[in-house]
Design brief:
two-stranded antiparallel ribbon; 4 helices; 2 strands; alpha+beta; globular
């Protein structure tokens, strides 16, 4: 990761460390499947591939906060990840 950081500094680009945030969210457990899911033929299974609905909310907040685009008083910022209900598009 240090090479990536060095390149980001060299080219003056924004670097969001998702790995560091993921570890912080999961008590440094690299293998945690919390906030992850994968749906196959209508069956939901925890995987290490895709965020679930709470995971997407957490990542969205992380990205917006670190880009200084998150209004802390907005409905999105104050919404608990467990309070969302996503509707499946058909």
């Amino acid at each position: 990761m240090n090479i990536v950081r060095d390149v980001a500094v060299q080219y003056d680009v924004i670097l969001l460390d998702f790995n560091l945030e993921w570890l912080a969210m999961n008590n440094n457990n690299k293998l945690s499947t919390q906030y992850l899911y994968h749906e196959v033929n209508g069956s939901v299974n925890a995987t290490q591939l895709h965020p679930d609905k709470e995971g997407f909310m957490l990542w969205g907040k992380f990205i917006l906060k670190n880009l200084d685009l998150l209004d802390p008083t907005s409905a999105f910022a104050t919404m608990a990840e467990t309070d969302i209900a996503l509707k499946k598009q058909v």
